[in-house]
Amino acid sequence: MRRLRWVLYGLGFSTLTSGAWIAGLSIEMYELSQSLALLSVIWIIRIMVRLFLQPLAGSIIDRSERSRAVWMAYLFSGWFGILCALWINWKGASVLTLLVVVTGFQVFESVSSPGLQKLIQIALPKQALNRFNGRRLAISRSAAIVGPALGAELLAKTGSIVPLIALFALAQIFLGWGSLRSRVVGPRVSTQHPTLYAVLKDGWHYAGTRKDLVAIFVLAATASGGWRMIEILVPALSHATVFGTGLTGPAYSMSAVGSIGMGWILSRYQRDYPIRWILLSQLVNMIPFALFVLTPTPLGIIMAVLVTGMNADFHDVVVSTYLQKTVPHEFYGRTSSSYRTILAMGALPVVVATWLHIIPTIAVASYVSLVLLGLGGIVIWRMLRSADASYSFTISK
């Protein structure tokens, strides 16, 4: 655990500055364009980059010796951010420039994030993964509460988004240094797979032969759309006179509060949770959305945000730990990247539908969330009932 302490600190610093940068980006984009629809473009770009590059990134990670791909991605991301900050400071901010910055950061994140998960998998014994992931969640979500408020405050004080980009870039460099300092050496993919395409194909074939991984992927696709609906419901509060604008900030904070609470629970009760528990958490997640549809009150949406924050992070920690403990090192990069690709695929239709005004009201968004979460629950329940005895969806001792 000690060898990864700088990685843990870096994750907190990165989450803090990422929240600040994204919050400042949203404000700056709206001021430049005066268009709410354009804010959806930010999410569409991030999702599309992940959708197309994540499988390739997984292959790069698995082919990389000494975790070189991880720290190089972080360092390149940091230097890219610094160059962009200097450019914007010289030329001024524009919608196009900010979209380029978002795209660049997301490209590097497609490699660095799953690569860091593999680095953690290699560096820690299985019995330490639960504890580390619980700490990671608690630190990251604590920073997530402060980040957006910090970003809005810095943007208001300085009148420029440059400091936010520079801070996030420094956080990426710090994480790259922490990853390099950990000196983790992982196995390399066999030379029988000389091309990226061959490695990618082999990884997808491996995932397809495991029913437990298929179940996780299906659940991720439906759950991601349901969670992303929170990104639509919360901003909609400020435009609904029945709620008033004062609840937007508290509603955002409740997601992070739920995440921190779940991180504390998982840190305190360290055990291997079966995948069936994710199904249960998803079904529980439907309750506040159903109550909000029946009785649309401010308390209803805040409870939906709170439970969604808890559910999403329970899903994150349980799946991350499960993959780290059950997927061989040589397949982990591609498996983790495939999982992240599925998450992006699940969220994309919801974001695009909102951008095209197909989901026009809070009530419709809540119904869509219910359908997505319920559909995932039904599908996974069927898969669990037909699961072979060899795939108990628990971690073997």
TrEMBL record:
Under the heading InterPro entries, the entry gives:
MFS (IPR011701), MFS_trans_sf (IPR036259)
Provide the topology term for how it sits in the membrane: Multi-pass membrane protein
**Keyword annotations:** Cell membrane, Membrane, Transmembrane, Transmembrane helix
A cellular component term from Gene Ontology for this protein is: plasma membrane
Q: Does the keyword NADP apply?
A: no
Q: Which residues cross the membrane?
A: 7-30, 36-57, 69-90, 161-180, 213-230, 242-265, 364-384
- Major localization listed first in the record, in broad terms: membrane
- Subcellular localization(s) per the UniProt record: Cell membrane
Recall the GO molecular function terms of this protein's record: transmembrane transporter activity
Do you know which PANTHER family this protein is assigned to?
Answer: INTEGRAL MEMBRANE EFFLUX PROTEIN-RELATED (PTHR23513), MAJOR FACILITATOR SUPERFAMILY ASSOCIATED DOMAIN-CONTAINING PROTEIN (PTHR23513:SF6)
Q: What is this protein called?
A: Major Facilitator Superfamily protein
Task: State the organism named in the record.
Answer: Sulfobacillus thermosulfidooxidans (strain DSM 9293 / VKM B-1269 / AT-1)
